[in-house]
Amino acid sequence: MHPTRVMFQIVRNPPPTLLRPTNWSQQINDFISECLEKTVENRPMMVEMIEHPFLNELFDNDEEIQADIRELLVFCRDAPAIYKEPEIFVDRGYIKRFDGKPERMYPEDLAAIENPTEELISDSLRNRMELGGSYSFIGDILLSLNSNDLQLDFDEEFHIKYKFKSRSQNSPHIFAVADIAYQDMLHHKEPQHIVFSGESFSGKSTNVRLLINHLCYLGSGNRGATTRVENSIDAIQMLVNAGTPINNESTRCVLQYFLTFGQTGKLSGAVFNMYMLEKLRVSTTDMNQHNFHIFYYFYDFMNSKNLLREYHLNSDRGYRCLRIPAESQPTKLKYHRDDPIGNVENYKRFESILQDLDFNHKQLETLRKLDGFVRKLALSKTQAEELAKFLKSGNHLAQDVRTSGYRKRQTSIKQFFTVNDANTFTYCHDIIGLMNEINITHDPPDWRLFIDSNKASLKAVLLYKDKSKPPVPLAYNTDKVETYNNLKVLLNYIQYEQFQWRICADMKVVATVMGLPPSGWPRNMCFICLWDTRYAEGQYNKKDWPLRDEYTVGNANIINSPLVSRDKILIPPLHVKLGLVTNFVKSFIKRNDAAKTCLRNMFPKLSYAKIEAGIFNGPDIRQMLKSEDFTKSLDANAAIAWSALKVVITNVLGNQRHENFRGYVNNLMEAFSKANVHMSLKVHLMHAHLDWLERQLSTESDEQGERFHQIAVPMEARYKGKKLDAMIADLCWWLKIAKENLDDDDLDCELEC
What we know:
Elements: H1 3-12, H2 26-35, H3 46-49, H4 53-56, H5 62-78, E1 88-91, E2 94-97, E3 103-104, H6 118-130, E4 135-138, E5 141-144, H7 156-161, H8 174-188, H9 204-218, H10 225-240, E6 241-244, E7 247-251, E8 253-261, E9 267-276, H11 293-304, H12 340-356, H13 361-377, H14 381-384, H15 387-393, H16 411-414, E10 417-419, E11 425-428, H17 431-437, E12 447-453, E13 458-464, E14 472-477, H18 484-493, H19 496-499, E15 502-505, H20 507-513, E16 569-570, H21 573-588, H22 593-602, H23 608-613, H24 618-626, H25 628-632, H26 636-651, H27 661-674, H28 681-688, H29 690-694, H30 702-718, H31 724-741, H32 747-752
Parallel strand pairs: 12-15, 15-16
Antiparallel strand pairs: 1-2, 2-3, 4-5, 6-7, 8-9, 10-11, 11-14, 12-13, 13-14
Helix pairs in contact: 8-9, 9-10, 10-12, 11-12, 21-26, 21-28, 26-27
């Protein structure tokens, strides 16, 4: 073992013991353990060790000890000679042997260098490279220097050397990183993350393959899994690798590998994510930048099989995307575009891997036809718009595959939007023209105006009454504060007075547009009636509050003139549902430790403050509805109230409204009263104004608007820093196309893709 590694083992590893401690007495084992204690403060002094039982239990008669020693000497004299390694010792950074010259030691961990300088580190790395050590540690970081001669294949003996070992037991290697991650995963039961970073041609892809190869060895045992994972990496690299002036196997994307293991540590599968760095490589005319390998593999394979005509391709290798020079350029690198014979074999292997991954003949044929058409168009900007038509007309895609064109798609829609000079506010100035352009019938009584804000913006969106038509964004304001002035300007610009849509928004926006304070605790805060929040005889005992006959500034907490008519306001079912759950949880959470513990276990990522405040979102509530443990943790009155609340959420505030919804709500109010649930505004709306909810359809909900926020997030990220009118026009175009081709559940994920 290298002396440097010995020094690291002394520090990092536990003290050595006898080879077989059970063959020796407890006294001698303890004596050795005390002597080899590494912490000075815990190591006994000599006067203490003299009193150790191992020394005190020696024979009192010296003659017996002498006889035993003589017998041992005779035995050793007759034993065969044992080979002894030449003695070496370390002195000031050199290994000194009695039979050779001193040899300079170069640290395997650069973090161990005292007073490091650039020259000292460079000298250490250079000399390690000359001695065959391309890897070095810097603390927990592994540094790999590409010598262009990295070994790719290792026998099982080398893998065993790095299996369940401490880092200091072997020289630095990528296998050591894999072994540490694997051990930590099994021990801590937590995902491990390994990041590779470096310049082009630094060996990132090679080291990733080596790391995964060792992880597959460590997790072997699941028949076929390791082979499929390693073959999948080969197929991915055929798709994303390309030639550059300095690297003939340059990976032109960011790759994310997720390797999954079972409870026993066996490899179970893998997930691969790819983030393309340069889509322009497909269509660029730079002859020094080669295209992705798969293009050369496919073309040369089809040429060798005389199948080019079947895929509408010419046989002259003259396509722009192949970028074949008229005269071959002298180069030290062997590029795939210059190796047609090798490309044929590579494509055979590519399809063989896909077949092993359960790709059927129809799917492989679709890939072939798609690849052939990419060459036919050469992906110029003017021809790219014909891609969708060609694929559909030629039946090259399965029936469930949808296509659409993207080039300047928002141009015709952008003309209907105006953006201010500061690029903070955009709105539709011609709603009739916009609806005609996107071919959607606009009858104002059938549409609802959703107004809400998120972390990025304040939006106004038209929602159709039954979700059969796509949402249509009308305004977008980066000043996301829902103030009275912001809402007044927004409604004015989108010509609300002309169309008079019904308003669907949360209670804060409703209060603001009706002239009420949006926050605080005023005495009368209901926009429908003069509800007294301090009613002494019990909130659940009174329903018939006097209606608001007028909205005069200064009267009954009205601070601004209403912006819309009260009859145009819709009760927001989603926010009512959230409010009911919030008030229910707050009513018992502080006195019911079992329920509090259950919620903390159910939502470990939620802060304790949010749980105690009853702040949950839609998915959280759905999880609570399914949890039997949560129901069992409640006391009798709370359990009855929770059961009634579940019925109301499902049959009153969901997508379908039961014919007996009034009875369900009355049962809930009675249960809430017995469970001492606080009467908030949203509980009051269900208690006193259920007829208001009855006026609106079950499909008229703010939930559709909240989903629009999620759909718009990728578009907002894509257009960050660009003109808002282009973004909102593009969003209008996409929502129209997506609604024609996708189900509602696919809208948000498809846009992000």
